[in-house]
Amino acid sequence: MDNLRGVSMDHAEQGTTQRLSAFIRGNLDAILTAWDDFARSLASGRHVDAAALRDHAGGMLRTIADDLDNAETVEEQHDKAQGRGARTGLESQAAQHGAARVASGFTFDETLSEFRALRASVLHLWAKANGQAAYMPLDDTVRFNEAIDEALTGSMERYALDKAEAMRQFDTLLSSSPDLQCILSPEGRFTYLNKTLAQLFAREAEQAVGKQLGELCPALAASLERDLAQALTSQAPVRGEIRCSAQPGPAVTYRYVLMPVINQNGEVASVTVTARNISELKASEDKILRYAYYDSLTDLPNRMLFRDRLEQEVRHAGRTGRKIAVLYIDLDGFKEVNDRFGHQAGDKVLQEAARRISGQVRVSDTVARLGGDEFTVILTEVGKVSYIDALVQDILRALAQPFEIDGHQANISGSIGVALFPDDGSGPEDLIRNADQAMFAAKKSGRNGHSFFTQTMRDSAWARQCVLHQLRHAVADEQLRVHYQPIVSMATGAIVKAEALVRWQHPECGLVLPDAFIGLAEESGLIGAIDAWVLEQALGRAHAWSAMLGTPFQVSVNKSPSDFMVRTGPGQSDDLARLLQAGSTVAVEITEGVMLSDSPGVRAKLRQMHDAGVKLTIDDFGIGYSSMAYLKKFKVDFLKIDKSFVRDMMESVESRVFAETIVLMAHRLGLEVIAEGVETPEQRDWLKAAGCDFAQGFLYSEARDVPGFEALLGAGR
Ligand code: C2E
Ligand code: CA
Ligand code: CA
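# calcium ion complex -> structure
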């Protein structure tokens, strides 16, 4: 502050003394410039510029200068003695100053030092201007100091007021939050709490301030103190979750974060805590978890959880060398209950069955519902087989009790299959499959019984696995063959069509007929590939034979219901596209079940086929529902009377009547009729007389390989 640039030195040279008021007015710029460096350092990094600070200071100094000129009145002196400032202009300026500093985020110390610097600038420059030996009017100096003090006090008062107001706003803001918020001293005392937290402690925030964690929340103190200590040492946020059993009401879960507040010395001055009630979030998470792992109808573990538990139990039993048993329970007669009393009643039966099964086992055992009317039980730590035997009997007895449902009485029973670990399987999959197979055996040997998995079952399961394995290769290794059986016109006796029938040329077993492997292919999903391949072969033949005969020759292919109804995806649409392209050179044989399912997918597929001219044959007609309504709805072209009617025809009047009726009805609907399994001339003659259009059977020929079939065609010509 030795910068005297611009300060008038006249009086120092003349040895006269200038009044302070005149000095301030005359050298305001120089004073403020001397003070500037300081002001700039304060302003930097704040939302306030140095010019504004300078204006404030200048205004205040001008007011002080005016004041110094006015001799103090008696009242003013009196007021001052009473501690009341008389300089009303200065007072309001000081208040403005304080308010502005709070708004700009100045600290208390910074605001104080601003005044100290101003005072120093004025007195320093004034002394210099007056020369070393010069006499400085004492009165002016005193009065200037008084004025600066007054401005300082005014500013500080306002500063404190505004600061308190800001705190109140802050408190209001935090207290309107549903979250719990507080500030803790490093010693774990509350220095601030928002209203939400104070209410939780059932006291006013003011009463709680200063209290220790342990005094206000003894139950949680230990764990919170641990977190606090961690926040203090790590100087980093500490997060956690805490569950409190609120009285009264259900337990509440909070997710919280402790944030250390670091002071200028790099120490943790305090720790803020925010905690949020996440009970609802938790509840919905739990719900999602329940949904994924539990059956909503019975509240029992579902297939997924059952599988997990079984895996755990198997691992545990493997370590401890204990036995476990898996029971596979299927309800007998449940479908009838459902059909008779409706789904709601069915649901109640399932719930009650779940209760009855659970009632027979230990809490440590797992009862699960796999879906439908199938339940499973994991029995852990089974000592003797006789124990399982007795328990299974108990479950069967419990299930055989009548079910009272909405005033009706329903009777069901159970069939139970048992597989043991480690005897009957080493992993969950084996155990489930083998228990299922044992259940199936129990069901077959009469209901309401149980069966343990046996060596024989193991053998047949093993055989099945082998066949499936080989069948997979059969498709790739081209072991499949298609044989063609002629279909003749009853009117002319000529071969007019053929049915494609698949065979498996097994390397060891020879030619295997489809009944031995189609079922397995359907269950395993292999049927799609097989049918697609057969279709390709049949189409090739149909084209070749049409060309050979010079007239369209139709070949029909069989489509498995499971494949036709369920399979979608790229393979299926290729297959369908090929069919649609083939048009009327191909006929598709499906069973009635496909139509009865009446799903939008099937309906669309059948319509597409019809539009493309593909002929639709209902195979094995008569053994199923024989619904005439569907025949019309789905625009069926041919009906194939099942071979059982043809076989019984000569002996059974009913079969004859039935065949006759079918032909009549079919013709009325515009369909043609094929009789299959025609083995004798009598059957042929009778069918012809009944008006049947086509016939197929050993009487004409069995299914033959391509050369064999072509020989037939050639002979026919
Ligand atoms: P299906 O569609 O009812 O085929 C007629 C079955 O009756 C054929 O048995 C045929 O050889 C046999 N058959 C023909 N004439 C006579 C006769 O006069 N008397 C007797 N008793 N039987 C006769 P196959 O070839 O063993 O086929 C059995 C079943 O396998 C077929 O029954 C069909 O449902 C299925 N199948 C055959 N090939 C395929 C195929 O490529 N795909 C699908 N999904 N299933 C096929
Ligand atoms: Ca057929
Ligand atoms: Ca048939």
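# post-check
The two ends are 130 Å apart (CA to CA).
The mean pLDDT is 86.
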